[in-house]
């Protein structure tokens, strides 16, 4: 339970990074191009939050001393899977909610549990 709470705290910080990057990129891209570029904007923001999440989860949540490159590749793989889930959710809800923050929020939430359990039982499985 403690790891899940720590994972949530780290996730919240990654969520903030993700939101800041998403908002900045969304403001930089012309509104007429957003439906086409939403997936790119979402992906860049999601992966930005993922990089900070990996580092903080490695040193604080799971206190891993495993091989950083191996764990990094595994974490990236889990993040890519969560990204695909988020993009699918986005594609399903965007026709109703548009390509804004509500769609982003639902897509981001969609990957939280997948992220935690795959990282706990695969990426950081060697950590007690």
Give me some keywords for this one.
128 residues; mainly alpha; 5 helices; 84% helix; 0% strand
**Largest beta sheet, briefly?**
none
* Overall SS class: mainly alpha
Low-pLDDT residue spans? none
The proportion of strand residues reads under 5%
Helix content: over 70%
Q: Output the radius of gyration.
A: 15 Å
One letter per element, helices H and strands E, the order comes to: HHHHH
Shape: elongated
Intertermini distance: 13 Å
Count of DSSP E strands? 0
Mean pLDDT: 87
What would you say about this model in short?
By secondary structure, the chain is mainly alpha-helical. 84% of the residues lie in helices and 0% in strands.
Describe this entry's structure for a reader.
It is built from five helices and no strands. It is mostly helical and 128 residues long. The protein has one domain. It is 84% helix and 0% strand. The mean pLDDT is 87.
